[in-house]
UniProtKB/TrEMBL annotation:
Stretches assigned to the MCM C-terminal AAA(+) ATPase domain: 328-387
One of the protein's GO biological processes: double-strand break repair via break-induced replication
Species for this entry: Graphocephala atropunctata
Protein name in the entry: DNA replication licensing factor MCM5
Enzyme Commission number: 3.6.4.12
Predominant cellular place of this UniProt entry's protein: nucleus
Subunit organization: Component of the MCM2-7 complex.
Top-level division of the source organism's lineage: Eukaryota
Keywords for this protein: ATP-binding, Cell cycle, DNA replication, DNA-binding, Helicase, Hydrolase, Nucleotide-binding, Nucleus
């Protein structure tokens, strides 16, 4: 299970070579099947769907490819099952296969573009989403599809995917150490294994990271809240932390209704040590869940959702007539949550909140923002959350 093998324990196994080589052979066979899928999969009109998509994405300078899991299952059901049950091992292999296929079908390339960039595989599925409350421990390290609302988003940060470390004492460099994706970090070795005659042993914890020799990617942390219609009566909504990286960053903003496809993962839980200067200590055997996202679908349909279609001249004429009507304020307020009786003043305040205000600069130099905030206080069961 993810996250339980990150302890600072390092050893050598002289009898594990056979098992490791067998695993490498298996991944090579899986990689070959992924390449066959990208090259050969076609739909009813005999267009090579993903091969053409790779060419199109390369011409657009977009180094990502969206894969439908049902397409993969129709091509090779066992391959899709492996990707569903072991995405952490097979998704990097899939991305390597996509990079090699893109390298083949775009050759020869112009001068200066000989190097092929890494390609991110984004997944989508037609499966029925699972409620956030129904995601349990047996689904750790598997692909899970859940709906929800994004309630917060962090800024863009950088995470190393490969890094080099150096010993402070003997200056030995250990290059290109792979770092797993997700919110778990990398545990530096506590001892230097370099042995030089005539030199004292290196002290404990000698390694430091060399930032200029690290390969990094962008990542963002989102907070997902379960949908209102799936919350049992009288209970608080539950939340789940989301990890998105590379081309999935800044795809959504707080307030978007989304359907997330990702790897249900776990990370270490830390607590502050009392009297220890505020240092955090990891709790052994306890892990907090989060989702490593591999696909996002933004839900723009349904009542109250935004639409992307442009307004027709008839719509613009209707908007102008509505704006000119003297009772437009009351009409808009009545259209907010019509299923909730009363609360006229609250609905008028929400109307002002939705439209916002204008930024004003007063004669004395004081600036008033146009942003409107609203605080609702009241007894339980008075539809505050629904409003």
């Amino acid at each position: 299970m993810e996250g339980f093998d990150d302890a600072g324990l390092f050893f050598s196994d002289n009898f594990g070579d056979e098992q490791q080589s067998a695993g490498q052979v298996n991944l090579k066979a899986v990689k070959r099947k992924f390449k066959e899928f990208l090259r050969q999969f076609h739909e009813g009109n005999f267009n090579y769907k993903y091969r053409d998509a790779l060419k199109r994405q390369y011409n657009l300078r977009q180094n990502w490819l969206e894969i439908n899991i049902e397409d993969l299952a129709s091509f090779d059901e066992n391959l899709a099952d492996k990707l569903y049950k072991q995405p952490t091992e097979h998704l990097p292999v899939f991305e390597e296969a996509a990079k090699e296929v893109a390298d083949e079908i775009t050759a020869p390339r112009p001068e200066g573009e000989e190097h092929m960039e890494d390609i991110q595989i984004l997944l989508n599925s037609d499966a029925i989403p699972t409620s956030l409350r129904n995601v349990k421990s047996e689904q750790v390290s598997r692909l899970v599809k859940i709906p929800g609302i994004v309630v917060s988003a962090s800024g863009i940060r950088a995470k190393a995917i490969q890094m080099s470390i150096q010993c402070r004492s003997c200056r030995t460099v250990v290059p290109n150490l792979p770092v797993r994706p997700g919110l778990d970090g990398y545990v530096l070795p506590r001892k230097c294994n370099t042995e030089q005659a005539g030199r004292p042993k290196c002290p404990l914890d000698p390694y430091f990271i060399m930032p200029d020799k690290c390969s990094c990617v962008d990542f963002q942390v989102l907070k997902l809240q379960e949908l209102n219609d799936s919350i049992p009566q009288g209970e608080m909504p539950r939340h789940l932390q989301l990890y998105v990286d590379r081309y999935l960053c800044e795809r959504v903003v707080p307030g978007n209704r989304v359907i997330i496809l990702g790897v249900f993962s776990i990370k270490k839980v830390s607590k502050s040590k009392r009297g220890g200067g505020g240092k955090e200590k990891s709790i052994v055997g306890v892990r907090a869940p989060y989702m490593r996202v591999v696909g996002i679908q933004v839900d723009n349909g349904g009542a109250g959702k935004s639409i992307t279609t442009s307004a027709t001249p008839e719509d613009e004429d209707l908007f102008r007539r509505l704006a000119a009507s003297p009772d437009i304020y009351e009409r808009l307020a009545k259209s907010i949550a019509p299923s909730i009786f009363g609360s006229a003043d609250i609905k008028k305040a929400i109307t002002c909140l939705l439209f916002g205000g204008s930024r004003k600069r007063m004669p004395d130099g004081l600036t008033r923002r146009g942003d409107i905030n609203m605080l609702l206080l009241g007894d339980p069961g008075t539809a505050k959350s629904q409003l």
